[in-house]
Amino acid sequence: MKKVFQMFDQGKTGFVECSKFVNILNTLGQAFDEDELKTKIAENDPNKEGKVDFEKFCGIVMPFLEEDDDEAMHEELKEAFRLYDKGGDGYITTQTLKEILKELDNKLSDDDLIGIIDEVDEDGSGTVDFDEFMEMMTG
Fold first, then answer.
1. Beta-carbon neighbour count of residue 89 at 10 Å?
2. DSSP 101
């Protein structure tokens, strides 16, 4: 969860803007009710500051995360990775990852995408291996 928070805390301020929660949940592939999301944001941002720290971020996001079978999710992600790893060489390019993320959530801005890629591609290689992909998708 910390990785997801860091991806959307682009200014490294220790806060995530409340306006990004629709994008965050879409990026995580989570279905959600907008009214329920607004309620969770209001509960965790009572002063209407428009931003939350990591603890409150978790209070907003965690109720929406489905408790899936970890092994089944691992297999689904492995299969998804294989689909995009066309060369079968164990990695995808960061450009391919950008396309995947854009497909998952077309509201992500270029800055959002760059921030996510920078977090995931820690070694700056321009590629993402399966472990990095898993870390990004499961947090």
1. 9
2. H
Residues 30 and 37 sit within 8 Å (Cβ to Cβ): no
CATH 1.10.238.10 correct for 70-138: yes
Amino acid code (one letter) for 111: D
Domain residue extents for the chain:
2-64, 70-138
Burial grade of 5 (CB within 10 A; 0-12, 13-18, 19 or more): buried
Q: How far apart are CA 29 and CA 3, in angstroms?
A: 16
Provide the whole-model pTM. Answer: 0.51
Q: Which residues contact 92 (CB under 8 A, 6 or more apart)?
A: 81, 84, 85, 100, 127, 128, 133
Q: Who has greater pLDDT, 103 or 40?
A: 40
The structure tokens listed for 101 are 């993320």
